[in-house]
Amino acid sequence: MKIAVVGATGLVGGEILKVLAERNFPVSELIPVASERSVGKQVEFKGKPYTVVSFEDAIAAKPAVAIFSAGGSTSLELAPRFAEAGIFVVDNSSAWRMDPTKKLVVPEINADTLTADDKIIANPNCSTIQMVVPLKPLHDRYKIKRIVVSTYQSVTGTGKAAVDQLFAERKGDQDAKKVYPHPIDLNVLPHIDVFLDNGYTKEEMKMVNETKKIMGDDSIQVTATTVRIPTIGGHSESVNIEFENDFDLAEVVELLSNADGVIVQDDPKNYVYPMPLTAHGRDEVFVGRIRRDETQPNTLNMWIVADNLRKGAATNAVQIAEYLMKNKLVEAAEVVA
Ligand code: 2RA
């Protein structure tokens, strides 16, 4: 398949190239794309250099799929132009996620809703993806009433400049360029994305709204506090889930162990639990500290960790492209076009 990676020079773009290579995605032609200031730069794919091209050249090259990770405004402007040219867009930004005409897809949960007409497909927010992957099988079995989540998010979610800020501060560089309004090394910021009028951040409201859309159930109540911490390996989440029905803890562990894309790491006596350090570079979502909330009925606590650049972004997007290919939606669309 001819595939374009839009935003190929960014952190997520680089991870998309790695994931395509690792998963042996059948790439017949790779088209790395970025804004004017990066056109002509080189990126590496499977050990070979590729030259970054402009948006116009990418549309003219007619890839079957373009995976976008270039920010909301670029996506709002350019995704429709790619789509009009018959190219499937899998978009990592928040631009299209809550658009009722667009699907918000986590392949383990709702890829089967996709059709050849879904030319712009939204990839959910990283912290939402890693939460819903393990929660969906539990929702199907016990029906979730309410989720209380607090996140501990990696600086890689902000981008390269934030990783640079963290390491510059760690080296004692007082003039480190600031992406955050405060130091991030040796600190914790209860602030991800912009603050909204309701006192929550946009990241927190993404978790509320996207969870309902992906699960296809508006009755699920979600309340979130999203926090940036000085780590790079992945996002962690403390999640408290109240179910309509009671559960058996051993069955919960079994459901999670059998869930697609989930690995249970839960042996606290031997200090086994998910951590960003061990989730880093992995495609799965890791779950541990699975225990009953003893303060109220039908309620579970657990700890979820995933590499936000992988399952939270690149891997999920590549899995969507794989689904389009395996289910022949790409060819079907080309025939129609
Ligand atoms: C973050 N959720 O971690 C964002 C990235 N999309 O900041």
UniProtKB/TrEMBL annotation:
<dbReference type="GO" id="GO:0071266">
    <property type="term" value="P:'de novo' L-methionine biosynthetic process"/>
</dbReference>
<protein>
    <recommendedName>
        <fullName>Aspartate-semialdehyde dehydrogenase</fullName>
        <ecNumber>1.2.1.11</ecNumber>
    </recommendedName>
</protein>
<feature type="binding site">
    <location>
        <position position="153"/>
    </location>
    <ligand>
        <name>substrate</name>
    </ligand>
</feature>
<dbReference type="GO" id="GO:0050661">
    <property type="term" value="F:NADP binding"/>
</dbReference>
<dbReference type="GO" id="GO:0009097">
    <property type="term" value="P:isoleucine biosynthetic process"/>
</dbReference>
<dbReference type="InterPro" id="IPR000534">
    <property type="entry name" value="Semialdehyde_DH_NAD-bd"/>
</dbReference>
<dbReference type="InterPro" id="IPR012080">
    <property type="entry name" value="Asp_semialdehyde_DH"/>
</dbReference>
<feature type="binding site">
    <location>
        <position position="308"/>
    </location>
    <ligand>
        <name>NADP(+)</name>
    </ligand>
</feature>
<dbReference type="InterPro" id="IPR036291">
    <property type="entry name" value="NAD(P)-bd_dom_sf"/>
</dbReference>
<keyword id="KW-0486">Methionine biosynthesis</keyword>
<dbReference type="GO" id="GO:0046983">
    <property type="term" value="F:protein dimerization activity"/>
</dbReference>
<feature type="binding site">
    <location>
        <begin position="9"/>
        <end position="12"/>
    </location>
    <ligand>
        <name>NADP(+)</name>
    </ligand>
</feature>
<keyword id="KW-0220">Diaminopimelate biosynthesis</keyword>
<dbReference type="Pfam" id="PF02774">
    <property type="entry name" value="Semialdhyde_dhC"/>
</dbReference>
<dbReference type="GO" id="GO:0019877">
    <property type="term" value="P:diaminopimelate biosynthetic process"/>
</dbReference>
<keyword id="KW-0560">Oxidoreductase</keyword>
<feature type="active site" description="Proton acceptor">
    <location>
        <position position="235"/>
    </location>
</feature>
<dbReference type="GO" id="GO:0009088">
    <property type="term" value="P:threonine biosynthetic process"/>
</dbReference>
<feature type="domain" description="Semialdehyde dehydrogenase NAD-binding">
    <location>
        <begin position="2"/>
        <end position="117"/>
    </location>
</feature>
<dbReference type="InterPro" id="IPR012280">
    <property type="entry name" value="Semialdhyde_DH_dimer_dom"/>
</dbReference>
<dbReference type="GO" id="GO:0004073">
    <property type="term" value="F:aspartate-semialdehyde dehydrogenase activity"/>
</dbReference>
<feature type="binding site">
    <location>
        <position position="228"/>
    </location>
    <ligand>
        <name>substrate</name>
    </ligand>
</feature>
<comment type="subunit">
    <text>Homodimer.</text>
</comment>
<feature type="binding site">
    <location>
        <begin position="37"/>
        <end position="38"/>
    </location>
    <ligand>
        <name>NADP(+)</name>
    </ligand>
</feature>
<keyword id="KW-0521">NADP</keyword>
<comment type="pathway">
    <text>Amino-acid biosynthesis; L-threonine biosynthesis; L-threonine from L-aspartate: step 2/5.</text>
</comment>
<dbReference type="GO" id="GO:0051287">
    <property type="term" value="F:NAD binding"/>
</dbReference>
<dbReference type="GO" id="GO:0009089">
    <property type="term" value="P:lysine biosynthetic process via diaminopimelate"/>
</dbReference>
<dbReference type="Pfam" id="PF01118">
    <property type="entry name" value="Semialdhyde_dh"/>
</dbReference>
<keyword id="KW-0791">Threonine biosynthesis</keyword>
<comment type="pathway">
    <text>Amino-acid biosynthesis; L-lysine biosynthesis via DAP pathway; (S)-tetrahydrodipicolinate from L-aspartate: step 2/4.</text>
</comment>
<dbReference type="InterPro" id="IPR005986">
    <property type="entry name" value="Asp_semialdehyde_DH_beta"/>
</dbReference>
<keyword id="KW-0457">Lysine biosynthesis</keyword>
<comment type="function">
    <text>Catalyzes the NADPH-dependent formation of L-aspartate-semialdehyde (L-ASA) by the reductive dephosphorylation of L-aspartyl-4-phosphate.</text>
</comment>
<feature type="active site" description="Acyl-thioester intermediate">
    <location>
        <position position="126"/>
    </location>
</feature>
<keyword id="KW-0028">Amino-acid biosynthesis</keyword>
<feature type="binding site">
    <location>
        <position position="97"/>
    </location>
    <ligand>
        <name>phosphate</name>
    </ligand>
</feature>
<comment type="similarity">
    <text>Belongs to the aspartate-semialdehyde dehydrogenase family.</text>
</comment>
